[in-house]
Structures are given as C-alpha cells and as structure tokens.
C-alpha cells in the first residue's frame, strides 16, 4: 500500500508540474498548445542522455529544461505572429514530429549508438542508493517541513475566502459558494497531503528509492508553484491575462505582446521539460511510445477540470484525474464484466461524460473563475 501511494504521488506530482506549464501558456496567456508533450519529450531524453554521459543529474535536468525552452522559442518565432489556430496546428505537429524522429534516429547511449525504437534503459536516477541514517532523517525532516507548509498554505487559502465573504456583503451568494469550494478542496488536499506524508516517512526510513524521488519531485513542484503564484500576480502576470482577454489593449498601452507570449511559451516549455525528467526517472526506461499525444490531452483534461488560470485548480485537476484513474482500474473490473480492451474504452467514455457534465454545470472548472473563462474564445 505504501509503495502504491508513493507511485501515485509521483505520477500525480509529475503531471501536475507538466500541467502547470500548460496552464501558464493557455490558462493565463491564451496560447492554444496541443503539442505540449513535445517539451516533455525533449526534457526527458536530454536529461537521461546527458546523465549517461556522466553529467550530474541536476545539470542534466536543467539542460533538459533549457532545450525545452529553446523549442518554445523556435515555435514562438514561427507562429506567434499568426492566428491562434496556427499555433495549435504547429504544436500538435511538432509533438508528433519529435516523437517520430526519436523513434527512427540512433541515440548516443553510453559509448555506443542505439536505435531510438529500442528506448533508453539503465540510466541513473536520484537517490538510487541507500543513504545513511542521518541523511534519511534529514530527508524526513524536509518532507515534514513541506507537509507543514502545505497545510498552512491550504489553511490560509481558505481563510482568504472567509475574509472576502465577510468584507463583500454585496456578493454574499458567490462568496459563500467560493468558501464552500475552497473548504471542500482544502480538506481533500489536506487529507491527501497527510496520507502522502505518512507513506513518505515510511518509505524514506525503510529506504525506497522511489520515496527519495518523490521527495525531490514534491519540493520542485512546491517551488515552481510558489514562483508561478508570485509571477502571475505581478505586473508581468497581469499583462499575460490582458493578452488572454484582448491583446489589442496591451498593444495600445505600448506592451510588446509578441515578447510576452514568447516568454510564456518558453517558461511553460521549461516547466514541462523538468516534468519530463521526473517522468523518465519514474519509469526507469523510456521509449518513444511513452510520449504519445494522448498525454497532452490528458493534461488538458486536468487543467479544464481544476479551472484554467488557477494554479491550485491545476494541481487539483491532476489529483482528480489520477484518483479517477486509480479507482477505476481497481474497482471497475469487479463491477463491469468487460475484457481489458473494452474496459479501457469504457473508462475513457466515463471521463468524457464527466467532462460534459462539468462543462454544463461549471464550465470554468472546479476552482476557475467564470469572468476569466477562456473557453470558446
């Protein structure tokens, strides 16, 4: 059970990180990116190939993020001066192009060249060897600190809605709904944080390398989330939102809209590249088929579920998506008498139905704001 919870935590956190990059591009800037998997692919392959050459893992991951950001720069220069639909077409084509190139190209694995179709295996991952007891206790301390900060942040986030409700009597109903949403989401995330903390402590003390990877990933996710929250509330973030709503307005104010779009595309790509490194470390061996376009659209589901333009909503969307995936994998086979192939199709059909209901009932997502809705633009 502990190992399974650690596995789910790593999967959820890596795709939450991946989705935060997409949310920056689309939720805050309005850039339609249907090939987000391209950034993850470059980040993953750059990281593992450099690590096989003896480059330290941290530098390898940063290099992967830089290569992914460079891809965003290239795509941006080619498409951002055109209409939005051109960006969508180019990105989905780029994602498939990179996957097919990797599949058919020979890769420098160690001291030899190997066909990309055979994948890359036996590359180093963080904390793969058992550390000393002192270092394990330090890691448990870091995990404890992270859990405390997470619970405090959730409490403060709920308190913000309470203060808003008390101050704004003219919008009592909407503020009451906001408080109820935040309270429910806060409780769910707090329970999950406690469960992950307990599993992490057990996994770190008895040492499971995946627990070490989970700790590093959660720290990176917390750091990226914190910096993004500061950025989107800064003047830079307000310009991105203005571009999303109507880019002619910031243009009229003398802002270089193209440059801001390019920055958003590059930063979102770099975040996805870091997520690619953790995705590769979790798998232990990567193949081109691990980076199918379906992963991009799964990430879109996460952003839409949680609410575009909301970083906490994006993380919540990843939690809901993987909770649904885990529950249906374990429970549905016992309820629905279908073979494996049909069961997979049924699961996709159900989540499609859930999305349809959500779009009717709450098109802005669970935590999204209706006044900031970008769907249909």
Automatic annotation (TrEMBL):
Keywords, in A-Z order: Cell membrane, Membrane, Transmembrane, Transmembrane helix
Subcellular location: Cell membrane
InterPro entries, per database record: ABC_transp_permease, LivM-like
Topological category with respect to the lipid bilayer: Multi-pass membrane protein
Molecular function via GO: branched-chain amino acid transmembrane transporter activity
TM segment ranges: 6-24, 31-52, 58-79, 133-158, 179-205, 211-228, 265-287, 299-324, 344-361
CDD domains: TM_PBP1_LivM_like (cd06581)
Keyword Plastid: no
Main location as per UniProt: membrane
Protein name as annotated: Branched-chain amino acid ABC transporter permease
